[in-house]
Design goal:
Helix content of chain A: 25-40%
CATH topology of chain B: Rossmann fold
CATH architecture of chain B: 3-Layer(aba) Sandwich
Oligomer: heterodimer
Shape of chain A: globular
Distance between the termini of chain A: 27 Å
CATH class of chain B: Alpha Beta
Radius of gyration of chain B: 21 Å
Strand content of chain B: 15-25%
Largest interface: A-B, 47 and 43 residues
CATH superfamily of chain B: P-loop containing nucleotide triphosphate hydrolases
Number of helices of chain A: 12
Order of helices and strands of chain B: EEEHEEHEHHHEHEHEEHHHEE
Structural class of chain A: alpha/beta
Number of domains of chain B: 1
Number of strands of chain B: 12
Helix content of chain B: 25-40%
Structural class of chain B: alpha/beta
Largest sheet of chain A: 8 strands, mixed
Chain lengths: 338, 318
Amino acid sequence: MLLDVKDVSLSLKREGKYSKILDQVSFHVNNGETVGIVGESGCGKSMTALSLMRLLPDKAKLDGEIRLEDELISSYSNRKMQKIRGNQASMIFQDPLTSLNPLHTVGKQIEESLLLHTSLSKQERRKRVIKLLNDVGLPRADELIDEYPHQLSGGMRQRIMIAMAMACEPKLLICDEPTTALDVTVQAQILELMNELKERTRMGIIMITHDLGVVAEVCDRVIVMYAGKVVETAPVEELFENPKHPYTKGLMQSIPKLGIRKQMLGSIAGTVPSPENMPAGCRFADRCSQAMDVCKTNVPQMTQVKKNHKTACWLYENKGVKKDAAAGSEQPKTAFYL
Amino acid sequence: MPLLEVNNLKQHFISKKGFLSEKRVVKAVDGVSLKVEKGKTLGVVGESGCGKSSLGRSILRLVQPTEGSVKFQGKEVTDLNALEMKKLRREMQIVFQDPYASLNPRSTIREILEAPLKIHNVGNKKERKKVIEELVERIGIRKDQLNNYPHEFSGGQRQRIGIARALALNPKLIVADEPVSALDVSVQSQVLNLMLELQQEMDLSYLFISHDLSVVQHISDQVAVMYLGKIVEFGDVERIYNHPMHPYTQALLSALPIPDPKQKRERIILEGDLPSPINPPSGCPFHTRCPFATKECKEVVPALEEKTDNHFAACIHI
């Protein structure tokens, strides 16, 4: 197992009060596997990624265990974490324009992690950067290396971001909506490149997206998040064929499908609850058409419904078995303040 | 007679960098012709920078078109004076992409919805109140929320308010410029459902501008595919999606990720990005990325021609 995330909870301070953004998020990633995290805006998918890399705002409270290659990185100091970032684990962000520094050349920005994490000489670094640019499919790498981000198109900038992330051959690559800001034809290029890189390097990828199409194309396994909690996880084919959680079903039904026209789409009534006003029971209960009494008061736990397919919903929970499991499991294992 | 008929519409912008540098012309819309029938939806798809939003704006004369004709119910729109144009605007309205930026944060929903009625002197205060209350009820917002401000609503609700504002004057045509792009999928479907219902009830016509191919497929009767300011393919939605003719449309459709992991397809991966509209390629605008481009494509500008029954494409090789 490459990455093991166990019961990670995150609270952020807002207007003087802590509110829980993530609640006991658990999942794992294997080598050479792409795991998708899907959910709508505000469900905590980006915060999950930032928690893994520990790129959190001040006064964030993070509980739980994060293990990367059996190292408990959640107990690492900030300084030790810096050795991980960009080295064993790196991240690609959504908007390639705002995540590149406009004042530095492309080469300098890609070189930075080599400078930090390796002992290569200046010439060796330059050679390596040119190779990286070639690897991500950019033309005329030896000129491009001295150009600035504004001289490049959106697709090229995203390739630069990928080259930066790949510089130290990470074991884990976290991609936060890497193609959302791109056009479909460019998105297709980037997704193909990422699949290619994965095949070549056997790294594990976490793909955060709201686009179920992208998930279907590149992921092996999917985690569905809702309001800061994991509500379902399954291999990609199983999830699309046989979604269990009413939220996942609702999501699937609300996407327009090719070949079906002008019919009413499924939709989910209501809106996501805010972190300050989380319902006591299942967080989806207020919007769920199948909600029962128990859903309003008790938190459902992840239950196995099939091999490798788990969901947190009272419809599938063994009746009466773990009813008050939620109350007993609120024991933070490690806590630190940043 | 079609409700809207656009002929050879051009929208050029002049971009001047610095004091002495020469003027450069951005041909955002470069000779577009299309028709929208009553009660139907024409979808306009294309990637960013292809000129689809400029097309919507110049049809409504929110920017003055450089050249060409726009006929609404048989009447030429481009040379109307301000007063006549104001009258005509009751018939053609717009819904914007960003529901956060398109509603005035300092006005209540009641004020926002009343504005178009006031501008066009519709009814007295009491009548207007009734119209507004019917409107919000139709879009699924409670009457007692009318005195709330935009920030108190979610993105989906705000977009529905934007639609209600466009509907307040009972228009015949709505230009919807990426109306669901800023919304999450479950909310997007609510807005699409509302638009479809309203179309049936009020016999509305939509010019639906979007980069999202599956959304356009869902809502449109006919589709126009734009590339660098030109329509490269036009036809009924089934024809375009099942038998795309133009290489660009083919690549665009094959690039669309399909939410079904079992469906593995042959992809046409295009090289490079959209060229800049300031310096568009000679000949066919797509020839720089086209897998089938020949020498001729660099020289000849292909015209949009009817290739089969009601199916138009601009490519010399079809």
